[in-house]
C-alpha cells in the first residue's frame, strides 16, 4: 500500500487528491487546519481507516517541525509528498513566532518537510514530491538579505521569491536523490477551490468569479494523478498535463547555496 502525504488536503485540489487516493486504496496523511473538513471528507470518500489527520498551521516553524517529527516517528516510507497548503495574504503578516507568514507557509515549511522526510521518500521505489504552485520563476527573484520582506513587501515580489526558492529546493532534493521526481505543478486554468486567504475586495471578487467559472478540483487534478502514477525522475514543471520549461538561472548552484545558508541562519535564531 502506498503512503501519500497531502498538505492542504482538507480543501480544494488537495482534498480532491485525498479523495482520489482513499478511493484508490492508498494510505493518506492529510495535513491541514480543519478537523471538521477532514472528517467530512473521509465520511464521504470512505477508507477512513487508511486516513490520518495531522492538524497543523504550516505558517508556524514549530508546527512544521512537529509534523515532520510526527510522520518520521510513525512511518518508514513515503511514496508521494504533495505540498498544496495555501493561504493567500496580500499584506505582510508576522506570526507569533516573529516570522513572515507567507514565506514560512509557502517556502520554509516546504523546506522542512522536503528535507525532514527525504529519508522516508528515498525508501519508496519511485518517490515523488509535488509543489502545487503556478509554474515559472525568475532567477533574480530572491533577496537573501531580506527573505521575510522586512524592508519592503509586495505580494508579487513575495510570490515570485517563493516560487524561485521552491525551484532551488527541487535542485537540492533531486541532487540528494537522483531517483526522486520533483514536480512543480499548477492547474491548466482557474479551479473552483476555497481560495483560502485574506484578500482585498478586488481579489476576493476575482476569486468569486473564478469560483463560478473555474474547473472542479477533481477535474483539475486528473493530470496530476497521472503524473504521480508514473513520475518522471528529476525536476519537471507542468500546467495541467502540459510540460512547462524550467527556467535555469545563470548560477543556480550559487543561488541555492546562498538561499540555504540564509534559511538555516534564520531557523537557528
Ligand atoms: N485555485 C486555483 O485556481 C489555483 C490556480 C493556480 C494555482 N493554485 C495553487 O494550488 C494550491 C492549492 O490551492 P487550492 O485553491 O486548491 O486551495 P484552497 O481551496 O484555497 O485550500 C487551501 C488548503 O490549504 C490549507 N491551509 C491554509 N492555510 C494553512 C496553514 N496555515 N497551515 C496548513 N494548512 C493550511 C487549508 O486548510 P484548512 O481548510 O483546513 O484551513 C486548505 O486545505 C495553492 O498553492 C494555490 O496557490 C490554485
Automatic annotation (TrEMBL):
Task: Tell me the domain of life.
Answer: Bacteria
Q: Which Pfam families match?
A: adh_short
Question: Which InterPro entries does UniProt cross-reference here?
Answer: NAD(P)-bd_dom_sf, SDR_fam
GO MF terms on file? oxidoreductase activity
The record ties this protein, via SUPFAM superfamilies, to:
NAD(P)-binding Rossmann-fold domains
Listed A to Z, the keywords are: Oxidoreductase
The protein in question is named Short-chain dehydrogenase
Amino acid at each position: 500500500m502506498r503512503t501519500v502525504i497531502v498538505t492542504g488536503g482538507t480543501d480544494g485540489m488537495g482534498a480532491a487528491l485525498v479523495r482520489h487516493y482513499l478511493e484508490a486504496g492508498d494510505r493518506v496523511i492529510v495535513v491541514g487546519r480543519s478537523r471538521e473538513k477532514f472528517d467530512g471528507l473521509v465520511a464521504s470518500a470512505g477508507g477512513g481507516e487508511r486516513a490520518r489527520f495531522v492538524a497543523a498551521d504550516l505558517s508556524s516553524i514549530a508546527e512544521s517541525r512537529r509534523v515532520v517529527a510526527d510522520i518520521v516517528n510513525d512511518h518508514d516510507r513515503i511514496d508521494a509528498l504533495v505540498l498544496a497548503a495555501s493561504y493567500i495574504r496580500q499584506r505582510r503578516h508576522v506570526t507569533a513566532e516573529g516570522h513572515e507568514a507567507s514565506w514560512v507557509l509557502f517556502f520554509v515549511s516546504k523546506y522542512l518537510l522536503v528535507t525532514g522526510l527525504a529519508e522516508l521518500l528515498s525508501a519508496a521505489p519511485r518517490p515523488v514530491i509535488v509543489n502545487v504552485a503556478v509554474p515559472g520563476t525568475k532567477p533574480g527573484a530572491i533577496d537573501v538579505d531580506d527573505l521575510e520582506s522586512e524592508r519592503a513587501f509586495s505580494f508579487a515580489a513575495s510570490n515570485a521569491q517563493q516560487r524561485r526558492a521552491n525551484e532551488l529546493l527541487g535542485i537540492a532534493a533531486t541532487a540528494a536523490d537522483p531517483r526522486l521526481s520533483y514536480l512543480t505543478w499548477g492547474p491548466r486554468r482557474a479551479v473552483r477551490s476555497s481560495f483560502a486567504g485574506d484578500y482585498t475586495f478586488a481579489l476576493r471578487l476575482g476569486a468569486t468569479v473564478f469560483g463560478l467559472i473555474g474547473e472542479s478540483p477533481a477535474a483539475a487534478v486528473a493530470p496530476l494523478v497521472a503524473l504521480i502514477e508514473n513520475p518522471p525522475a528529476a525536476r519537471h514543471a507542468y500546467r495541467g498535463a502540459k510540460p512547462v520549461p524550467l527556467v535555469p538561472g545563470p548560477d543556480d548552484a550559487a543561488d541555492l547555496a546562498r538561499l540555504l545558508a540564509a534559511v538555516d541562519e534564520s531557523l537557528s535564531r
